[in-house]
Amino acid sequence: MAxxxxxxxxxxxxxxxxxxxxxxxxxxxxxxGEAGKLGYATDVRWPGYFAWRPAPLGAVSADVVAAAFYSFxxxxxxxxxxxxxxxxxxxxxxxxxxxGMDGAYRALFGERVDGPEIAEAAALARRAAEAANTAGxxxxxxxxSLPWPDAPHxxxxxxxxxxxxxxxxxxxxxxxxxxxxxxxxxxxxxxxGAASAETxxxxxxxxxxxxxxxxxxxxxxxxxxEGVATEAGRALRAxxxxxxxxxxxxxxxVLGSEGTARLAELxxxxxxDVLGSGLLPSENTLGIGKV
Length: 291
Prior knowledge:
With 291 residues, the protein is mainly alpha-helical. It is 66% helix and 0% strand. The protein is globular, with a radius of gyration of 19 Å.
C-alpha cells in the first residue's frame, strides 16, 4: 500500500506508548529472576541491562556496546562487558529474556495476554517493525534479525523493541549531526530539564567528565554558567528531537494513519497498566513527558 502522511506528533505519541512496553524488560521481577538463574547479580539492574540489551548483537566487545549505546560512559560499559558473556552466552541470554518477558506480561496483563486485542496489537506492531529500515541502525538491525516468537504478546514486545531501537539509533544520528558527543548529549538534555542531572549521571560519567562537557557547552553558548539551557541550547535540543521523530517516522507512514491510530488505541490500556504497576522509575533519561 502507498505510504501515508503521519504527523510527527503521532510518531512521538507512538514512542511514548511503546517505550514503557519495551522497558519492562529492565525492571520486571520475572526478568530479574531469569537473570539470577543465569548467574547475573540482581541487586542492581545494570548486570542484566548489559546482558539483555546488547545480546542481539552477539558477544561483542565493550567498545562496540559503548558505541551503539552512545550515552553510557565507556568505563561503565567495561564494568559489565565482556565479563557478562562469561556468565551466559548471547543465545542463553536471549532465551532467558524471552522467558522473563513472557512471565512479566502475563503478570501485568493477566488473561488479556491471550485475548484478541493483544493479538491485533501484535499484528499491527509487527507490520510497523518490519517496515523499519535498519540500514545504519545496529541495534534495530540486530533485534530485527531475531526470529519472531509465536505468542502474540511476545510478538508485541519484540516489535516494540525493534521500533524503540530503530528510534534510538536515529536519535544517535541526530545527536551526531548536532555535534553533541555522548556526555554532552546528557548534559544538554539535563539543561532543558528533561530529568535531573543525578538521573543522567547514572550512566557512569565522572564528575570531571560531566564538568568538562558542561564547560564545552557553555563555550558554545548552549548552556549558561549554571548549566541551564540558553535559547540556542533549547533550539538545538528541539531540533534533535524533531530530526529523531522524522527518522523514526517511516514505519508509521507504512502502517498508515488508520493502522497507527488503531495501535495507539489498543496499546493505551497496556501503557496504563505498565505505568500503574510502579515497575518503571518516575524519572528517566529519555525525557518522556518533557520533550
